[in-house]
Design goal:
912 residues, alpha+beta, Calcium-transporting ATPase, cytoplasmic transduction domain A, Calcium-transporting ATPase, transmembrane domain, 8-stranded mixed β-sheet, 32 helices, 17% strand, elongated, binds adenosine-5'-triphosphate
Amino acid sequence: MHAPAPTVVWHAAGEEAVLEALDASREGLSASAAAERLDSFGPNALPKAETRSALRRFLAQFNNLLIYVLLGAAALTAALAHWVDTGVILAVVVANAIIGFIQEGRAEQAMDAIRQMLAPKSSVLRDGERRSIDSALVVPGDIVLLEAGEKVPADVRLLEASGLRLEEAILTGESVPVDKRTAAVAPAAPIGDRSSMAFSGTLIAAGAGRGVVVATGGATEIGRISGLLSTVETLTTPLVRQMDGFARWLTILVLLIVAVLFAYGYFVQHMPFDDLFMIVVGIAVAAIPEGLPAVLTITLAIGVQAMARRNAIIRRLPAIETLGSVSVICTDKTGTLTRNEMMVTTLAGGAHTWAVTGVGYAPDGEVRLGEAEADLADHPVLLEFARVSELCNDAALRRHGDDWTVEGDPMEGALKTLAAKIAPVSDFAAWRRVGAIPFDAAHRYMAVLHKDPEGRAWIFVKGAPERVLSMCSAQLGSDGRAEALDQAAWDGRIEAIAAQGQRVLALARREAPDDQAALTAADVEGELVLVGLVGLIDPPRAEAIAAVAECREAGIRVKMITGDHAGTAAAIARQIGLENPDRVLTGAALEQMDDAQLAAVVIETDVFARTSPEHKLRLVTALQSHQLTVAMTGDGVNDAPALKRADAGIAMGQKGSEAAKEASDLVLADDNFASIAAAVREGRTVYDNIKKVISWTLPTNAGETLTIIVALLLGLALPITAVQILWINLITAVTLGIALAFEPTEPNTMKRPPRRRGEPLLTGELVWHVVLVSTLFLAAVFGVYAYAVDKGHAPELARTMAVNTLVVLEIFHLFFIRNIYGTSLTWKAVKGTRVIWLCVAAITVAQFLVTYAPPLQQVFDTRAVPLMDGVLIVAVGAVFFAIIETEKQIRLVFRKPARAGSQASPARMAEA
Ligand code: ATP
């Protein structure tokens, strides 16, 4: 049960009746009542989609073409009474399934943890105060505050609604937002017509309101019709899918080749059937990169976790790849580049400019004129500043000991603090709000209608200064009396405050007819009286300055797109270290341009000021027309289209709306620009690691395959048996390959230019690497085998040495691959990571057992290798390493100029 028994039809009952039925009040529940209700109604969450059972997940590991081939081989070997082979094949199949099962479980856990981090929040009234709580804790009777861009957390009967419009598509299929008001509707009204209700899961497209929760969790309308909303996302990206496809295609190709070889061996070379059969099974196992998909999945899961640790939460997995190739980041200013800890420091009104002292949101500080504290009696206009600041405001200040924090918009919090520094808050307690126009980035102001204690009506407005000035016809003088508006003087004062990097806001007011009961946009146009300007500081984040520098080194251009004033934006851009801070394009100028003109200036302009959300969409499109990979941040409901259009849409986790989060690929838990740079670094690391896993796996497979095919074609004895191949490929290769998934970021990762858009994974360079390394594998294995035979060793011992050579080569190759962009011969590179050494140690021990432990010697048909021959094998590995490392160094020297030239980096675009 998630709702009280409905004694009333919520949408048809009056507000008071609803509140009474729910035993609730407009001031909200007390904390203790809320806790009791949470106990009896349960959390506000929809029933979870069923996850696959462990058994089914385990069985799914066997649903794979290669496993079928192996099981078929096991059946045939059993039929031929090769019991040891059957046993080994089955053991390997089961071991492989267990490894896959454990890895997949870890990956799923990682994704679950990420989903937890994205749990939505709601604003409710508890004990009469605004609180932000997990939506799961909302209970029937709670008063919830509804704001544009948020999702309605539960079914709510509205008590207040101003311009409230909800998108109810998930319930009604109707995509056009519908108007909501508080008046009751007919009991028989269908869901789409219940305008007095806001339903759980619907999106607030515009306006604001508040209401009382009537049902939560499974008892809501959405809970009733769906139950199972969340779908299980699989852990994959385009690249990984591409590799899966490649692996499948390779499997089929290998099976065809194997069939041909089988025919050749049987009909041309007249080999006995069961020997030949074991050889072709060996080839199939050697050639198919069966461990690859599992290792790639784990690489992605580790990348997702690494990003989450850096406060970047991946919502859509493909973003991991895209982030690594980002060449332009378009970012908001407030809260992302700056700290969003605002404080009013300047007031300008009448003939004076005052300075405000204090620290943070604590209401301790004073208003000063020159060196002395300003006296309210001499400066009555200051009281007007306090009144507009306090009343045209939706935020709340909260005190924790000496610490003050804000619930709501930090800028509004700073205005509350200002009001408290000027006059006691109790002065305004008797004023009652009767109407409001909420702030919207499209109109850039907020207005309220209040009744004063004597019953007179007042309109208070705050907003972007140009906007508010355009609504004013007069100004207050220092004496508090209205006088003619001096527009030119105000323009100068705005520029002067903005040039210091302060955010400027204008405050205005006017008297309204006493009987006025609602506020519309027409009421605030033209007749307002300007109170003055407020200048707020919002210092840049130190980490953001460092992150911008890091991005510039990584060939990524950072652009600031802000709703703020051009002067403020340029000043902050300079402090943050953007490349071109003084060339500012305003939203108004942008609107005058057609797409071609915009595309021409967009590369060299780094600061866009006074923009609206729809400008963001045009900017992304213009940047993408230059083949740039664009990351774009956003927080508001109107930012959703730009976030969707961007290659990587990034939403703010704290101040971002639900709408922005849903449209995004990545959510920043801390709203911090530095986390974007960290995500890009992790994105590049994941891409590198995927590349490393592939570059390591493919040559290993190719080398083994070539060895057997060459032996077969030349009619030589096999240097490695099929069972040994199984061991190498399914146990050593997978274990060592996993180590690469854990590789840390290479030191020069953020000093390289971004990867080209659409750069294929299987590049010519990679193909060359596969050819080179597999040829070396072939030469080394045959060389060691021939040497052993020549020395008079038994064939079993010669094969054992060949197997050990392969494993040693794999390990040396692993250390080589760890540094594809630099040298592998530094102490740091050799020291490696804990994971690398754990994997190498595990494989070394296993390899010693296979070589020297009698029971395993029986299974794998191996013999103890004499010490000097063992040393020789390691030496062969060292020579192999020296050859490929030298080849890499030569390649790196020649590649540098060529690579930089192939980048579509903004710097180069500008040159072009
Ligand atoms: P950014 O886009 O970098 O986050 P921003 O916060 O300035 O910058 P918007 O939220 O679009 O961008 O705000 C645009 C302008 O509207 C602000 O510069 C300010 O002048 C005004 N403004 C912002 N919030 C409010 C508010 N709550 N009430 C009144 N005016 C506001």
